[in-house]
Amino acid sequence: NAGVTQTPKFQVLKTGQSMTLQCAQDMNHEYMSWYRQDPGMGLRLIHYSVGAGITDQGEVPNGYNVSRSTTEDFPLRLLSAAPSQTSVYFCASSRHPTGGMETQYFGPGTRLLVL
Amino acid sequence: GENVEQHPSTLSVQEGDSAVIKCTYSDSASNYFPWYKQELGKGPQLIIDIRSNVGEKKDQRIAVTLNKTAKHFSLHITETQPEDSAVYFCAAIPGAGGTSYGKLTFGQGTILTVHP
């Protein structure tokens, strides 16, 4: 199994541009989520999904959209990038439909720089 | 929602010494407490976890303790080695009845450096 994969590894955007961060998992996990990691702030939950067709907001959802059309994929879209979205983004998945009390497996991350 | 505080933010020890990282949480409904290790340029990886019905759990050189009354939990690493150097995160997940049911809330992280 490849586990959780993320593309791209690194991206530079200009303010106002849009892009999609890709996340895929091959473990047939129901729960998938997106986090952003900023210095001194740990990881903060952006959006999550408990199954195909079901998504919900996390702690910091503004400026991001998600959809879950398949069990395997959970892309994160930035509609109009802002410098405040410069961060490292991690995707994670878990077998449990709520993500609770189950190991969450993280991808390698996407480093995003918005100029 | 849940709030997790982690201390210290940096920790420097000599090889062979012990290291202790402490976390407190706010939501009494939290019932699952994982610890993650993040190496440079990689995603966090689970190293140990504890559930609320257990006070202590050990896995070789790593142990975690939980005090539900005081709402704090700690990571203990004994006989530290240079390869233990990394960023460590604690986290908490509220169970049913919690305002953040099923959502992982992380502490701010501890940079552990083990000097040879």
Features:
heterodimer; A: 115 residues; mainly beta; 7-stranded mixed β-sheet; 4-stranded antiparallel β-sheet; B: 116 residues; 6-stranded mixed β-sheet; 5-stranded antiparallel β-sheet; 56% strand; globular
- What value does the Rg of chain B take, in angstroms? 14 Å
Q: Unreliable stretches of chain B, pLDDT < 50, 5 or more residues?
A: none
Proportion of strand residues of chain A? over 45%
Structural class of chain B: mainly beta
- Percent of residues in beta strands of chain B: over 45%
Cα(first) to Cα(last) distance of chain A is 36 Å
Arithmetic mean of pLDDT of chain B? 91
Helix content of chain A: under 10%
Helix content of chain B: under 10%
User: What class do helices, strands and sheet pairing of chain A give?
Assistant: mainly beta
Uncertain runs of chain A are none
| Arithmetic mean of pLDDT of chain A | 92
Report how far apart the termini of chain B are.
41 Å
Task: Tell me the overall shape of chain B.
Answer: globular
Task: Describe the overall structure.
The complex is a heterodimer of chains A (about 120) and B (about 120). By secondary structure, chain A is an all-beta fold. Helices cover about 0% and strands about 50% of the residues of chain A. In chain A, strands 2, 4, 5, 6, 9, 10 and 11 form a seven-stranded mixed sheet that branches. Chain A has a four-stranded antiparallel sheet with strand order 1-3-8-7, with no helix packed on it. Chain A is globular and about 35 Å long. By secondary structure, chain B is mainly beta. Helices cover about 0% and strands about 55% of the residues of chain B. Chain B has strands spanning about 5, 10-15, 20-25, 30-40, 45-50, 55-60, 60-65, 70-75, 85-95, 105, 110-115. The mean pLDDT of chain B is about 90. Classes of the chains: A mainly beta (about 120), B mainly beta (about 120). Chains A and B meet through strand 5 and strand 10 of A and strand 4, strand 5, strand 9 and strand 10 of B.
